[in-house]
Write a structure and sequence with these properties.
By secondary structure, the chain is an alpha+beta fold. It is built from 11 helices and 26 strands. α5 packs antiparallel against α11, α8 crosses α9 and α8 packs across α11.
């Protein structure tokens, strides 16, 4: 029978009685990377990847270093710390390669920690370290703060058990990441094929948008547009100011902005705006019911969204166009996928090129050229791509759930709240 864990008070809070507290500077040393002399974009025999933050985050090396003997070479699993830059204070697990000049390699001077356990501890303290950086220009880690960090020190067998649990969650996250990458590649390939070749076509023709099936047309958006409107269409500036009241706490209707549509939960949590019933009725020209096509006017010009179905009234905020389409000619979701594809983005960029103020005007939108398959084929293409998007959404939600589980585990395990392991079990 497992005995109840007894705790003691320490400068870092309550920890199990058989744990100790150590000052980080007493048990680690670190060595800074150097700027490499010879760098190439392609790998060569005997060269090693340059460990940039992009590579360490995305596992995609973009630079390779010729080994001359002056470089700091690190091995898989070494602990790295980003010393300089906007994200100074971030910890990474190394891959074999050349340490960048903005990073340090951390090494243990005393064998009191399992290396991976120490990494998890440091990741847990990362927000604090990031908040204590120095420098008015390029921020950097404050070595005094780093050295003064107080960390819990469990017995090694318990460290290994904690690592085993956290590593299991990490492996599940990594598998989910791979599934997301695979599904994103599938979606990219499907968009490439379906939006240019369609479904089961054998004969093609050349057009200003490239080669498309013979049965397809190239039309301007104006030809499939029932109405193009925006927030300002509801009245003059003075009338809008007089009749529209916007709240930052829940009210009758959601006041939809482009930033809201970046989320997967609708209305999203956090910085959301609402209007009361009278304001909603005044904004009658831009009421939203779901599946409308919305396009950004300024800033991220031409970015396109499909309005989600929500359980409350919704109305269009500023900086968005509302495109109401002729449903007998075009499917909203098909057009959304076209505008979010590389081909659609290219057309949006080409049309926006003359605009020096970074704004998209109604005439620009109306003059966009689009491929127009028969309506039934549009719906089939949209359905295929929606199925892939639903799979992506499920995978991303799974990853978010796993990350929440890991965060909770780290909070408990790294303070001795969850795991009690006898030394005999690990002999």
């Amino acid at each position: 029978m497992m005995s109840e864990t007894k705790f003691k008070k320490t400068p870092i809070g309550e920890i199990p009685e058989d744990w100790e507290v150590v000052k980080l500077g007493k048990i680690i040393g670190y060595i800074k990377g150097k700027k490499p002399k010879i760098v190439a974009k392609e790998p060569k025999d005997g060269w090693l990847p340059y460990l940039s933050t992009e590579y360490l985050r995305n596992n995609n090396p973009t630079q390779f270093v010729k080994i001359t003997g002056n470089e700091i070479i690190v091995e898989d699993g070494n602990i790295l710390l980003l010393w300089d830059g906007s994200n100074a204070g971030e910890f990474f697990l190394a891959k074999k390669g050349v340490l960048s000049s903005t990073m340090v390699k951390i090494f243990l001077k005393k064998d009191v920690y399992d290396s991976l356990f120490l990494f998890y501890l440091l990741k847990h303290r990362e927000p604090f370290l990031k908040g204590q950086t120095k420098g008015t220009g390029i921020p950097h880690v404050d070595k005094n703060v780093l050295n003064a960090l107080l960390l819990p020190l469990p017995p090694l067998p318990e460290q290994k058990k904690i690592v085993e649990i956290l590593r299991t969650v990490d492996e599940a996250i990594e598998k989910t990441d791979l599934a997301i990458e695979k599904t994103e590649r599938l979606k990219k390939g499907l968009m490439q094929r379906l939006l240019t070749k369609g479904i089961k076509h054998e004969r093609f023709k050349k057009t200003e948008l490239g080669e498309i099936p013979e049965e397809w047309k190239v039309v301007r958006v104006r030809e499939v547009l029932e109405l193009l409107t925006d927030y300002e269409a509801n009245g003059s500036f003075s009338k809008l100011k007089e009749n529209v009241r916007v709240y930052d706490t829940p009210n009758y209707a959601w006041y939809v902005r482009a930033t809201d549509l970046e989320h997967k939960q609708y209305p999203p949590d956090g910085d959301v705006r609402y209007v009361d019933k009278e304001s909603y009725e005044f904004l009658r020209k831009t009421k939203l019911f779901g599946r409308e096509l919305l396009m950004v006017k300024r800033g991220e010009v031409g970015k396109v969204y499909i309005m989600p179905h929500v359980k409350m009234p919704a109305t269009l905020g500023p900086n968005l166009y509302l495109l109401k389409l002729k449903n007998e000619l075009v499917d909203n979701v098909f057009l959304y996928y076209y505008f979010t594809s590389p081909f659609g983005k290219r057309e949006l960029k080409r049309r926006n090129a003359p605009t020096t103020l970074g704004a998209l005007y109604k005439e620009d939108v109306k003059n966009f050229r689009i491929p127009l398959p028969p309506l039934e084929e549009q719906k089939k293409i949209a359905e295929i791509l929606m199925t892939v998007d639903k799979k992506l959404e499920l995978l991303r939600k799974r990853k978010e759930k796993l990350e929440r589980i890991k965060k909770g585990f780290m909070k408990d395990l790294l303070t001795g709240r969850r795991v009690s392991v006898t030394t005999e079990k690990h002999k």
